[in-house]
């Protein structure tokens, strides 16, 4: 990639070409959990939080009626920071001169002005459309005069709260390299390689970082294989992709015998979301949201197509690796991401722990530098998805600059097609793997009580 292209796709602040594109898509700005007084006592009496996304500083708050508001942080009077505003139930009041703003940005009061002043009627703070889905607050940051596209009806956003769980973490790196690690079908055979397997019946469905310990669907000579074994023993996937209304469907085939192949179908939702299978009954949807050019929050949404999730247990398991209230990982460059050379020799390919494989991805993303220099890359056949996504991104940036239709969920015309998307991880007959994986996906959907009832 040329230096000017790398600059184009990584800079996301206000007024940048890529930033203008990303603002056309719904983005998570906070977990609902961040307003839970049990997790952050500051929220007990004052549900107000400063947030930063794509280089913009904003304040997110919840009024007394339970409505979310997302406003620019600089008071429109003289620029004081509204993140320190007084929460007064019906709005947020700037402590500098008492100007008060509702969740929709309306100025409710300008108390220092003369009696009868109409100034507040002429003032409005920039506010942004917000919606709550699947344990997160989403915002649309596009032009004030424009209408947001419909919120996508993907499984993770339509499943009931009993079958979903949301979490997040901060990486000290650019958004694009974070996303590119997630859509790379070849890396699990190396980055997440475990040198031994565990008995499948010892692995809980809520395990924090053991998604590569669970069994793939199907069997080899009557034996169910953990994905760890498949990733370790078959490290040269045959990668393909096809266009979908939301982006790309990715397929990685790992031929095992003359009769059997491992099939892993995942999805890339443009511009920065991937959907992968966690187990036969659970998927992970992960979104990558730029804080600024050099920091990114990943938001992960777990969706169960089987039993309800134990959200408290899932939260507790993941919180041991994260520092609240800002969801900063305890591992990082400062402590070499927990690297242990003895573990690398005996237990894992990377040597950075078995319990939280998020740190594996974190190392890959952060060790490239805050903004990866793609001019130094030497891409191979296994990087075809990465190259395809970059082409799509460059084309979309150009479309945003010219006013043409944007890809995926930013295009209202595509809204009826935003469903699923389906995934699979399993062992299939070589000549019938396409029919096999689709049957597996359909069976999973039919067994999900919440989805079956909704589609009926």
Folded structure, characterized:
The chain has 456 residues and is of the alpha+beta class. The chain is 21% helix and 25% strand. It contains 11 helices and 20 strands. The protein has helices at residues 3-10, 17-22, 155-158, 175-182, 227-233, 311-319, 341-346, 358-366, 384-402, 433-447, 449-455; strands at residues 27-31, 48-53, 56-62, 68-72, 86-87, 92-93, 100-101, 107-109, 130-133, 136-139, 164-171, 238-244, 247-255, 260-269, 273-279, 282-292, 295-304, 322-323, 328-329, 424-429. A hairpin with a 5-residue loop joins β7 (100-101) and β8. The longest helix has 19 residues, at 384-402. The protein is globular. The N and C termini lie far apart (48 Å).
Secondary structure elements and pairings:
Layout: H1 3-10, H2 17-22, E1 27-31, E2 48-53, E3 56-62, E4 68-72, E5 86-87, E6 92-93, E7 100-101, E8 107-109, E9 130-133, E10 136-139, H3 155-158, E11 164-171, H4 175-182, H5 227-233, E12 238-244, E13 247-255, E14 260-269, E15 273-279, E16 282-292, E17 295-304, H6 311-319, E18 322-323, E19 328-329, H7 341-346, H8 358-366, H9 384-402, E20 424-429, H10 433-447, H11 449-455
Antiparallel strand pairs: 1-10, 2-3, 3-4, 5-6, 6-7, 7-8, 9-10, 11-17, 12-13, 13-14, 14-15, 14-20, 15-16, 16-17, 18-19
Helix pairs in contact: 4-8
């Amino acid at each position: 990639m040329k230096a000017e292209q790398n600059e184009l796709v990584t800079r996301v602040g206000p007024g940048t070409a890529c930033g203008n594109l990303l603002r056309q898509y719904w983005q998570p700005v906070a977990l609902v959990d961040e307003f839970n007084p049990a997790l952050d006592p500051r929220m007990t009496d004052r549900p107000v939080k400063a947030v930063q996304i794509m280089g913009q500083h904003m304040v997110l708050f919840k009024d007394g009626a339970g409505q979310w508001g997302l406003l620019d942080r600089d008071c429109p009077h003289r620029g004081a920071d509204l993140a320190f505003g007084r929460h007064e139930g019906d709005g947020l009041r700037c402590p500098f001169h008492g100007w008060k703003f509702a969740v929709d940005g309306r100025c409710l009061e300008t108390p220092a002005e003369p009696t009868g002043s109409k100034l507040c009627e002429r003032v409005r703070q920039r506010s942004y459309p917000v919606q709550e889905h699947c344990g997160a607050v989403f915002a649309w940051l596009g032009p004030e005069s424009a209408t947001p596209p419909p919120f996508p009806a993907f499984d993770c956003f339509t499943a009931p709260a009993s079958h979903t769980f949301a979490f997040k973490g901060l990486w000290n790196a650019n958004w694009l390299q974070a996303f590119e690690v997630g859509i790379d079908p070849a890396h699990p055979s190396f980055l997440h390689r475990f040198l031994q397997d565990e008995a499948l019946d010892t692995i809980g469905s809520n395990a924090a970082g053991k998604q590569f310990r669970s069994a793939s669907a199907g069997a080899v000579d009557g034996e169910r294989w953990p994905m760890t074994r498949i990733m370790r023993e078959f490290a040269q996937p045959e990668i393909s992709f096809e266009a979908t209304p939301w982006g790309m469907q990715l397929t990685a085939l790992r031929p095992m015998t003359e009769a059997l192949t491992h099939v892993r179908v995942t999805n890339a939702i443009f511009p920065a979301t991937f959907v992968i299978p966690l187990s036969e009954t659970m998927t992970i949807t992960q979104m990558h949201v730029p804080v600024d050019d050099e920091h990114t929050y990943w938001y992960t949404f777990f969706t169960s197509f089987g039993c309800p999730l134990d959200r408290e247990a899932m939260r507790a398991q993941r919180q041991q690796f994260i520092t609240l209230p800002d969801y900063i990982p305890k591992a990082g460059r400062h402590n070499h991401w927990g690297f242990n050379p003895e573990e690398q020799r005996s237990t894992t390919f990377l040597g950075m722990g078995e319990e939280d494989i998020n740190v594996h991805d974190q190392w890959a993303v952060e060790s490239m530098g805050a903004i990866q220099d793609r001019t130094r890359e030497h891409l191979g056949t296994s990087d075809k998805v990465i190259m395809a996504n970059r082409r799509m991104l460059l084309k979309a940036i150009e479309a945003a600059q010219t006013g043409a239709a944007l890809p995926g969920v930013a295009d209202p015309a595509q809204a009826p097609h935003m469903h699923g998307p389906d995934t699979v991880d399993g062992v299939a007959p070589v000549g019938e793997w396409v029919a096999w994986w689709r049957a597996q996906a359909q069976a999973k959907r039919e067994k999900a009580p919440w989805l079956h009832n909704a589609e009926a």
